[in-house]
Design brief:
Elements: H1 3-74, H2 82-85, H3 91-111, H4 116-144
Helix pairs in contact: 1-3, 1-4
Length: about 140
């Protein structure tokens, strides 16, 4: 086989390999871009979930505050939160304390809303307030009957 023919075949093989490598490179770049987009989508979904959970927590907290105030007026109520117990003498101070603590926690959650641990913390707090709402419901059902 003459050298010229070997050089031509080598050149053809090299061009074919370069073309294949180029296609693989484009494929890898496309996969990497899809992963980056997916990761961005996951972060956007997490941010949306954190915001929705915070809305739920605010609603439950206001529900808790309303029923705490109602129970204080009726009497025979003992606040289990030792910090909130300090403010039971003044409904305004109690409201300010509870909403201030919630606002502080919300600002921390909002600052770190893109992190997984924040979403876990929001879900945990939402679960606690949801259970507390059921306890209030049971308390008033028992109180009314």
């Amino acid at each position: 086989m003459p050298i010229r023919q070997l050089m031509q075949e080598a050149s053809t093989a090299h061009a074919s390999m370069r073309s294949t490598a180029s296609r693989l490179g484009r494929s890898f770049r496309a996969v990497a871009e899809a992963i980056r987009r997916r990761r961005g989508d996951a972060t956007a979904r997490r941010v949306r979930r954190v915001l929705l959970i915070l809305v739920w927590i605010w609603m439950l907290n206001i529900f808790d505050l309303f029923f705490t105030m109602a129970a204080l007026k009726v009497g025979g109520f003992e606040e289990l939160n030792p910090l909130a117990r300090l403010y039971l003498h003044s409904p305004e101070m109690l409201s300010f304390f509870k909403l201030g603590m919630l606002l502080t926690a919300s600002l921390v959650f909002l600052a770190f809303r893109r992190r997984r641990i924040t979403e876990v913390g929001c879900w945990g707090l939402a679960a606690v307030y949801t259970v507390l709402s059921f306890i209030w419901f049971a308390y008033y059902c028992h109180f009314i009957s």
